[in-house]
């Protein structure tokens, strides 16, 4: 059984819709269990449980959401040195270009020593069917890669 932690924050509902699409893509891979949690509810135990992590954030003031930052702050020391090269992917809902949020998440993930395994999905403005398809692909890739031992 492959275990994926999908942690996200959403205020407008866009990132939540993206998270649902990532979830759909991941569970489409046989033998995958996905634990989908809002950032405020996710714990260090969830991080340790997971074989791979999908992180979703809106872009707030050119940065990741405060709740995603809070998730990182609350879990870091409990998982430090226990998650070396754990695979992760990112999805961002942005009104601007999403790059500030992406860079911030990548910077923190580097501190955890996670391993980025696929190009992030950045949805700019209103969500499109193409954005959601990319999110489903993102979920499928992390689940399949973990299942096959590629990551």
Describe the structure.
The protein has 5 helices and 6 strands. With 151 residues, the chain is an alpha/beta fold. It has a single domain, classed as Rossmann fold, CATH 3.40.50.360. Strands 1, 2, 3, 4, 5 and 6 form a 6-stranded parallel beta sheet that branches. α1 (14-27) crosses α5. The longest helix is centred in the C-terminal third of the chain and has 20 residues, at 129-148. It is globular, with a radius of gyration of 14 Å. The two termini are 15 Å apart.
CATH superfamily: Flavodoxin domain
- CATH topology grouping: Rossmann fold
CATH top level class name:
Alpha Beta
Shape, please? Answer: globular
Task: Assess the beta-strand content as a share of residues.
Answer: 15-25%
Look at the helices and sheets and give the structural class: alpha/beta
Number of strands: 6
How far is it from the N-terminal to the C-terminal residue, by CA?
Answer: 15 Å
CATH architecture tag:
3-Layer(aba) Sandwich
Average predicted local confidence, pLDDT: 97
Give a short account of the largest sheet. Answer: 6 strands, parallel
- What Rg, in angstroms, do the CA atoms define? 14 Å
Low-confidence stretches: none
Helix content range: 40-55%
Count helical runs: 5
N-to-C order of helices and strands: EHEHEHEHEEH
Compute the number of structural domains. 1
Gist of the model:
The protein has a single domain, classed as 3-Layer(aba) Sandwich (Rossmann fold). By secondary structure, it is of the alpha/beta class.
Notable traits:
single chain, 151 residues, alpha/beta, Rossmann fold, 6-stranded parallel beta sheet, 5 helices, 6 strands, 23% strand
